[in-house]
């Protein structure tokens, strides 16, 4: 008789990354077998983050760091059109928007996200006044993005939803 396959239990530390664990935390060690428990998964876990960034390497690096923190990433979307398509088809829980996509403003993306109730923030080298005067209201993180600050913003915004 073969032993029953073990069930996997994993709770990613996506909103308070690894602060409570010595390195490596269970999130970064992968799923741990626990034959005595069933998998109870919150339908919103892991959160899906849309990355809208026209510089592909910057977008891929940001996605890799968010995935390391336990998020599922969508993108990177380098244009307004590709971002709009992903917003409509992928249902993100949160979005990080570059404030300038190759000279094009992401206003349409920001408005679509706002209309759908998806929280977002801007990542930009532009100053806060430019963002406030030209784009729908949302928090601004200056580039280069500090991941702990980004995770704190995501945590705060998702907790408010």
From TrEMBL:
Coiled coil: none annotated. PROSITE patterns: RESPONSE_REGULATORY. It comes from Mesobaculum littorinae. The keyword Phosphoprotein applies. The modification 4-aspartylphosphate is found at residue 98. This is Response regulator. InterPro entries: CheY-like_superfamily, Sig_transdc_resp-reg_receiver. The lineage of its organism: Bacteria, Pseudomonadati, Pseudomonadota, Alphaproteobacteria, Rhodobacterales. Pfam families: Response_reg. It comes from the Bacteria. SUPFAM superfamilies: CheY-like. Residues 48-158 form the Response regulatory domain. GO terms for biological process: phosphorelay signal transduction system. Keywords: Phosphoprotein.
């Amino acid at each position: 008789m073969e032993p029953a396959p073990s069930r996997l239990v994993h709770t990613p530390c996506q909103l308070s990354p690894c602060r409570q664990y010595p390195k490596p935390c269970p999130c970064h060690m992968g799923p741990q077998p626990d034959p005595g428990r069933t998998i109870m998964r919150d339908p919103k876990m892991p959160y899906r983050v849309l990355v809208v960034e026209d510089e592909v390497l910057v977008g891929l690096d940001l996605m890799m760091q968010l995935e390391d923190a336990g998020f599922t990433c969508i993108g990177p979307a380098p244009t307004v059109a590709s971002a709009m398509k992903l917003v409509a088809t992928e249902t993100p829980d949160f979005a990080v928007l570059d404030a300038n996509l190759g000279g094009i403003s992401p206003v349409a993306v920001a408005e679509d996200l706002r209309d759908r109730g998806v929280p977002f923030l801007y990542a930009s080298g532009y100053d806060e006044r430019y963002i406030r005067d030209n784009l729908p209201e949302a928090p601004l993180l200056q580039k280069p993005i500090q991941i702990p600050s980004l995770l704190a913003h995501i945590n705060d915004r998702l907790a408010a939803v």
